[in-house]
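task queued by scheduler; priority normal; single chain, no ligands, no partner chains; default sampling; output format set to structure tokens
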Amino acid sequence: MKVIAERLGNTPQMIYEIYDHVLKELELEQESVHLFSQSLQTSGATIGAD
């Protein structure tokens, strides 16, 4: 985050304030993919969603 902020001429805090909702959505998406992959593995699938 620090490198991105520096390249944009902002502080990390400014980036978090502006893009916080996007970061939260990405976290939710990653968790969904992880849970889906786990459910595939539990059901015996050999290829996951990761």
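post-processing summary
- DSSP finds two helices and no strands in the chain.
- The helical segments are 2-8, 12-42.
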